[in-house]
Amino acid sequence: MSRTLHDFKALTLISAILLAVTTHCGASRAAPLETAVVAGGCFWCVEADFEKVEGVTEVISGYTGGRVKNPTYKQVSRGGTGHYEAVEITYDPDKVSYADLMRLFLRSVDATDAGGQFCDRGDSYRTAIFVSNPAEKASAEAAVAQAEQALGQKVVTPILPAGPFYEAEAYHQDYYKKDERILTRFGVKTKAEAYKRYRKGCGRDARVRQLWGDAAPFAGS
Fold first, then answer.
1. At what angle are helices 43-50 and 191-202 packed, to 10 degrees?
2. What is the pLDDT of residue 1?
3. Per-domain residue ranges for the chain?
4. Is 42 marked active-site?
5. pLDDT at 166 over 80
6. If you ran DSSP here, which 8-state letter would residue 170 be given?
7. Confidence of residue 19 (pLDDT cuts 50, 70, 90)
8. What is the pLDDT of residue 13?
9. What is the chain's alpha carbon radius of gyration, rounded to the nearest angstrom?
10. pLDDT at residue 185 in the model
């Protein structure tokens, strides 16, 4: 066999191998990250809960569902803007599904309460699921139906069309794990310590455990 022919066959084999590797890598490329938006009362708590979920890459506290552009926390908490305290969950669909997130969400709130959540009352603390497409809507509806069947009670958490999501002020992000010290009615505490006292005092975990028992995924977070 001539050297030229031998080299040609070798190059052809290498090309075939490279093409196969490229095709395989392309077929197995990870799916792009996706987002889910939910409102579950205090966004510090919802953020803290979902940042513990495997497959979730980021959770941002913010505001959505209202009429005012770029609202502030003061405006939203005062009322009248129509906004909910909400979170935007970025997740890897290869590791956790939208359906899984909805199931976890409905078991982390009091979905039977239309007037707020736990000790936090008012429109901005209501629960809601915000959907961006028919697939999300169908998945959210199935999760609500399953929750109603499991609870034996009416779920009042609405499923609403997604709108603009406005990121909350920087001091709200990851509040539950910040070491910054602040003055509270319990004395000087870190924000993380203040968060834990607030969460317990507000009765969030106690009420979720009352509703869901061992099926409550985050109670005690």
1. 100
2. 53
3. 1-30, 34-177
4. yes
5. yes
6. G
7. very low
8. 47
9. 23
10. 77
d(CA 14, CA 164): 50
Q: What is the pLDDT of residues 117-137, one digit of tens each?
A: 999 999 999 999 999 999 999
Average pLDDT of the chain is 90
Nearest CA to 183 among 194, 174, 175? 194
pTM assigned to the model: 0.85
Q: Read off φ and ψ for residue 112, nearest 5 degrees.
A: -95, 0
Better-predicted residue by pLDDT, 210 or 19: 210
36 in Cβ contact with 159 (< 8 Å): no
Q: Which of 25, 42, 119, 202 is catalytic?
A: 42
Written as one string, the DSSP assignment of 189-215 is EEHHHHHHHHHHHHTHHHHHHHHHGGG
> Residue 156 corresponds to which tokens in the numbers above?
């009042």
Task: Report the alpha-carbon distance of residue 204 to residue 153 in Å, rounded.
Answer: 19
CA distance 81 to 165: 13
Domain 34-177 adopts which CATH fold? Answer: Peptide Methionine Sulfoxide Reductase; Chain A (3.30.1060)
What is the H or E stretch that residue 116 is in? strand 116-117
Alpha-carbon distance 34 to 136, whole Å?
11
3 state SS of 178:
coil
